[in-house]
Amino acid sequence: MSTETRTSSSTDGESPIKPTDLRGILKYVPMFRGQTFIISVDGSVVAHEGFRNLLMDLAVFRSLNIRVVLVHGVGQQIRSLGEKRGVPILDAYGSGPTNEEVLQLAIESSGDVSTRILSQFTELGVSCAIPNAIRATERGIIRGEDFLFTGKVEKVDAPVLEDLLSAGITPLVSPVAANRSGQILRVNSDAIAAEIAAELKASKLIFLTSHPGLPVNGQSLLNVPAEDLRRTMADNPSAIPAELLSKVESSLSALAKGTPRAHILDGRIFGALLTEVFDKVGLGTMIHSNEYDQIRPARPSDLHSLYNLIRNAASSDAVRERSFESIQESLSDFFLYEIDGSLVACAALIPYPKENVAEVGSVFVQPFYQGRGVGLKMIHYAEREAFAKGFDKLFALSTQTFSFFREVCHFSEATLEDLPQARQEILLHSGRRSKILMKDLKSSGTPS
């Protein structure tokens, strides 16, 4: 399982990186230009004093030609109105039954919030529109309980939304929608956002909440594969906070229909949205499909990034220093660990066919991802590749991570004479005094 946890989270109201760091942002512009993000913002975030800052972040997206659909909730607004008017609220979020009194509160709250967002977008110079692009249908009677005026999405009018986005207009979608007969229904905003993400083939579905990401069993997650989260939902749904269940269900639904990434983060933190999107670590929790992280062969387009990674590693003597030309010449030996398009780790599988052995070298994991199992995955990959190519043994030379190879990867210490003659000479001339570790692939087999 490749779930990653957060050791700490920011609670001081500011994101870990400055959203004005243009160098960090511009690096991602080619990756996201022209793509569609569905942003779902809770009513509690809309009510927060920093909401205008969030709209400014969305304005940044538009200026970078990232297409945005904004879906808003009204849960907190419904509760506030209900308290003022003495209307009991059993469910303010559109998942449980909605009676006529609560429906009227939802309609009024939706109008107020939509008007507020429209006004502030206009002030920021962002064109937006409120389309009737969602058609709802009644949820009906579930386990004997009539859900009355609670609805679910029946149809997303994708062409209408596409036309608006193509014209540079941000669609603003509220959590009330009409059915075929024109009856207004209360619909869960998380479910609306997920359906829109699937229909528009969005690259990201982002939930902005009043929670710092998604905790599972009390442990805040950095990222989690969708399959792992599905198993948790099936086996132990109580491990997930009740107030985030709707977002998890909607995330999984969107990913099952082709959306690659869903994010859950605290939208009240200044710069949180820009940090989540434009920083490789992010701020909240990302739920991803299986291709989110991968080990793959290096490509010519990776050459400069690979050289910089090895150069940084060599500066601390973690790996042997390599010239740009030597890396270029041996690029086909390298394989990379990539997370969401970012280079996280590298290694090379160097063949010595005369002796029928191979070396796994230039193994390095970016500091933030060390201790998260990435290095072990890289060694297992090298073992499988070496075994598949018919090599009898795999060896590694290490000055700093020999205990990792010995205790975690189950290599055994070897001697200089165990190395191919060519590699002996390189080691002797380097002066690095590396420890030699060897693994017999024929006897140990390969990791699954």
TrEMBL record:
CDD domains registered for this protein in UniProt: NAT_SF
InterPro entries given in the database record: AceGlu_kinase-like_sf (IPR036393), Acyl_CoA_acyltransferase (IPR016181), Asp/Glu/Uridylate_kinase (IPR001048), GNAT_dom (IPR000182), NH2A_AcTrfase (IPR010167)
Where the record annotates domain N-acetyltransferase, the positions are: 293-443
Q: Name one GO molecular function term.
A: L-glutamate N-acetyltransferase activity
Would the keyword Transferase be found if you checked this record's keyword annotation?
yes
What biological-process terms (Gene Ontology) are attached? L-arginine biosynthetic process
EC number(s) per entry? 2.3.1.1
Catalytically driven reaction(s): L-glutamate + acetyl-CoA = N-acetyl-L-glutamate + CoA + H(+)
| Pfam families tied to this protein | AA_kinase, Acetyltransf_1
GO CC annotations on file: cytoplasm
Q: Which domain of life is it from?
A: Bacteria
Protein name (Swiss-Prot/TrEMBL)? amino-acid N-acetyltransferase
Keywords recorded for this protein, A-Z: Acyltransferase, Transferase
